[in-house]
Design a protein that fits this description.
38% strand; globular; eight-stranded antiparallel β-sheet; two-stranded antiparallel sheet; alpha+beta; Pnp Oxidase, Chain A
Length: 166
């Protein structure tokens, strides 16, 4: 059973997980899981926002462009191997949900599902997006993260709800 919680109640754990093993981003109505290690939570335009970055080369990119929504799922340590698997494999090639034996449940405020095995999930609707502009970026970042010119799109997702397993 899920209970809605305050948007910032899980803030510290979410940032900690982003900084360590990562978290899951789900996109598409079928819920393709992708491991992310970059993101922010804050307030923009008077709205609570979860900002995520997705490269156009990723399978999730097309799904996110199509639906305009995503869920962010915060795993416990027991899912570390599945985070690694989802970070190394593409939904174009394998059914990551089936392979990882995830239980997907329907979103509460969005059509994108969430991973039931994750103890907290955020439901977000894209309110703005920007492509990373190389001319506006420090060269050291380009050299380290964009050697093949596969620049991210930055998605600003309004957080519509945050839920914890009860």
């Amino acid at each position: 059973m899920r209970k809605e919680i305050d948007i910032y109640e899980n803030f510290h754990e979410t940032v900690k997980r982003l900084s360590n093993n990562g978290i899951f981003l789900l996109t598409g109505e079928e819920g393709n899981p992708m491991t992310i290690g970059w993101g922010t939570i804050g307030r923009v335009w008077g709205k609570p926002i979860f900002t995520v970055l997705v490269r156009p080369s990723r399978y999730s990119y097309g799904l996110l462009e199509k639906t305009g929504e995503f869920s962010v799922n915060i795993p416990g340590d027991e899912l570390s191997d599945k985070l690694e698997y989802c970070g190394e494999h593409s939904g174009r090639d394998v059914d990551k949900v089936k392979r990882c034996k995830f239980t997907l449940k329907p979103g509460i405020k969005i059509k994108t599902p969430y991973i039931a095995e994750c103890h907290v999930h955020y439901e977000c609707r894209v309110v703005h997006k920007n492509k990373v502009i190389p001319d506006n970026m420090e060269n050291s970042i380009i050299e380290r993260y964009y050697p093949s010119d596969d620049y991210h799109t930055v998605y600003f997702g309004e957080i519509l709800g945050v839920y914890r397993e009860t």
